Amino acid sequence: MRQSVVSNDPIKNSGTSDSVARPAFSAALPHSPWNAASLVALVLATILAGLFVRFFNVRRVELSPYLTIFNVSDSVDGGHSLAYAQLRGKAYRFSYALQPGFAFPYAGGGLRLTNFAPNHLRDFSSFERIRFRARQEHSKGAPPVRLFIQSTRLHHDTLLLAPNEIQFRPTANWSEQTLDWNLLRLPSWFIAANSMEPAEQNVRLENVRELHFVSPDIPSLSDTGVLEISDVSLEGPRIAPLKLLFALQGGWIAWGIFQLVLVFRAWRSRAMSASSRARNAEDASLAKSEFLATMSHEIRTPLNGVLVPAQLLQQSELDAEQADLVETILESGNHLAAVLQDILDHSKIESGKIELERLPMDLRRTLGSVRRVFEPRSREKKLKLDFWVDPALPSIVVGDALRLRQIVMNLVSNAIKFTERGEIQVQVFASNLGGNRIRFEVSDTGIGIDAASINRLFRRFSQAESSTTRRFGGTGLGLSIAQGLVESMGGRIEVASTPNVGTKFRFEIELPPSQTAPRPGESTLEAMPLPVGARVLVVDDDRTNRKVAFSMLEKIGCVPSVAENGVEALDLLEQEAFRLVLMDLHMPRMDGCAVVRRVRGWHDAADPRKRFSSRTPIVALTADAAEGVRAMCLEAGMNDILTKPFRREDLLRMIDLWAQGIAPEPL
User: Fold this and answer.
1) Which tens digit of pLDDT belongs to each residue from 461-495?
2) How far apart are CA 410 and CA 443, in angstroms?
3) Considering the entire predicted model, what is its pTM?
4) How far, in Å, CA of 128 to CA of 354, rounded?
């Protein structure tokens, strides 16, 4: 038959995935029609800016209206070359003849910017290129012609006219020339003549004065030619691309910052909403905890008045019918107490407030106490109950004996409940993972669980099928509590089951060995001597509780005294000596914690009876099972806490733990 196995691993079974996390993140982003419109507008602006730069960002300015013509030749430097300049219509015509007499003969013409030319036209750096039409007739063909853009610059406190040079090659026919500034260079002879450092050799076009068109840069002499220039203009962008780029970047950055602001505001709104929901959830959880604590107190107090007298009555001589009635009362009361404790435990686990002790415990004694609890039930159902602990395991380990016992008891209780014949086995041995991990297995030969139902096992208030509750009873919280306790101890519960064959529960937890012996009274079911003659003071404002505690203490051989409130308790403790005080917490006039603080303050009193009472063990006797009650009692100076309703064994354990060996009279 097919065997169903489920691992109760919160990571594996949580169902969390990225697909769940993504909507939560996207929901934090700002969404609005205006925000989408602004993004579309910014994208369109970027596209339009690109089209503008590519096709429309061109500015052309005619220089011809602001130019005058003149001739240029080496005659000014002692040479003999000749040049003649004249304006023919819209064309500037330069005739030249190169003659020996100068190292590098040159001749041609120049165009000077007039005084009435706008200043912005003298700043060629705001443009990118120069355009003009040119043609030349030369005796040697079509050699390159040099254009010098003469601009002023300051060098070593001297104002220089720097010839920024560029070459072009006109032909005999008119052709358009486009010369970009990135081709401009300072001539080597100019750099050498002015001893310019490399950092000073850059081209500067801020203050242009003249344009020189001179003869070809060739070493031959007796060359003649004619050069004609027309339609001189400057060309550049209407808006500098970098400025446009910076403007777009600024727009995108501003939009991004705005988005961050919107995201921050959305995040803050969500955070405030989440905080508000968390506060509401915390308030609801606190209200639920307070409600459970209050109801627990209100139910436990009268329940204590039912169970304890029933326990005392059970020990008296009863006929068969009376004994059966008392047994029914005890079974119903214990079931009600167990249901109440399950609800409180589940509430603590659900809120993450479960407290685990880390104390030395006897592993075999703890499991033995579980076996003694269930042996009567297993014998009644004619089931074999077998406990086996690996002899190699240490006897004393560190852990929470009470919670471990609770886990095993839940699993064994389930096994007995759902098994009609066969056996229940509890096996404990070292884990295969090594370290200090110990493996617990609880198996039965019961009804088993099918694959469809096995996943519902650990849900609260849930059992394998709806008819199970009616047939076998139970709240459906036992396995949920066991699950939470095992996970709190760093383990996990696994289930393997085959219908009509049986079920096996297994879990592993860390239980390191200890060399320290458990404290006395660790087991609630071990044989304990009766404290004959021990004087015990019971302080409780409820008459039924005082009567119940008084009767039980008398039955186990103690000499009880009672006080109705804290003031009476102080009077008795000043006058008499007690081995143990059972102190209620909630009382009129003075509550239990206030009484304990007052008593512990007597350690320096002059009266020796007060000094003795200051050392008397005090155990809180309360129906308040709220979170933090134990810590509050211990902080006030109490030694332990006994929760109502309590059994005879619970009271014996407290007396055995705290009242044995205490001197009956002060020294």
Assistant:
1) 445 444 444 444 445 567 878 888 888 888 888 89
2) 13
3) 0.43
4) 78
